[in-house]
Amino acid sequence: MMDQPPRIGLLDAGARDAITDVAGVTVGHATLADGGVQTGVTVIHPHARDPFLHKVPAAAAVINGFGKSVGLVQLDELGQLETPVALTNTFSVPAIAQAQIARCCAANPEVGRAWSTVNPLVLECNDGYLNDIQRMAVTARHYDLACASAGVEVAQGAVGAGRGMSSFQLKGGIGTASRQALLCGVARYTVGALVLANYGVQANLVWGGQPLGRRLAARQPARSEPEKGSIIMVLATDAPLDARQLRRLALRAAAGLARTGSVYGHGSGDIALAFSTAYTLPHLPTGLMPAVTLVHEALLDPLFQAGADSVEQAIVHALWHAQAVTGRDGHRRDALRPLLQAMDK
């Protein structure tokens, strides 16, 4: 019986095989699971300090832009992350953005007054098949709960923002993983990934390099659906990279995504974000920006490999840990793991 998910790639994982293997990074969830409401919010903190005063370098890569996120324009312009990364459902983006603004203003009363405004960052997927998304059940209170619960142990599957998500016409959700990259045989850095998986046509599913979707379709053909979901892929690293290099790293998330059977369909919003915890950028212009020795361009390949492998592994973990969920109007998504166990008999 298959009792472990496939192990992706040859690189070592961190101690937790999670994005929180990057020192300082924490993750929190708030989950809503009540009948037709199957949704939530997930928050990723880059470090324990005030993210507005101590920004981290960051960049995004839009692989397919069928999405309704907030904050990507300024992120692309300035190359800085100044709030936690928040994930939720499509219609809850405004509420979570307001919660991020309110939390920043409470900590920094001059935001939007003597100081510049804050750039909230909220990324989304549409969980409307399982969740009654029109009820807009996620509120600022849930964002605060997710922030308060943040820690280094990361729950996976149908939790937080992943509660109502579907992948390959099965239950999707939150997954995380990490890989260690060795540069020049000396410098060891960690790349961690967290995904919000809500995409995929079942027949296309590739599971650790094997065409599992074809086997599933042969046993019990799924209803034909176009690939109209989405995936958010967040990469964290302790490698000293600038925003331009982080965008290059973010683009490699697409390699890990493609290996699972995604074709970045017309209706799929596929967005990757990468940030570095190696240094921070001060908000207040009271001194010089930090002088940072960056990784040489010619040495980035191990980080690219770690990024692709950790994203693929995180997607595998999202499917592996998800449990079946019944939600709006009796809609149901079955979990993959019991199907694998049945196939293995």
TrEMBL record:
<protein>
    <submittedName>
        <fullName>Peptidase S58 DmpA</fullName>
    </submittedName>
</protein>
<comment type="similarity">
    <text>Belongs to the peptidase S58 family.</text>
</comment>
<dbReference type="GO" id="GO:0004177">
    <property type="term" value="F:aminopeptidase activity"/>
</dbReference>
<dbReference type="InterPro" id="IPR005321">
    <property type="entry name" value="Peptidase_S58_DmpA"/>
</dbReference>
<dbReference type="InterPro" id="IPR016117">
    <property type="entry name" value="ArgJ-like_dom_sf"/>
</dbReference>
<dbReference type="Pfam" id="PF03576">
    <property type="entry name" value="Peptidase_S58"/>
</dbReference>
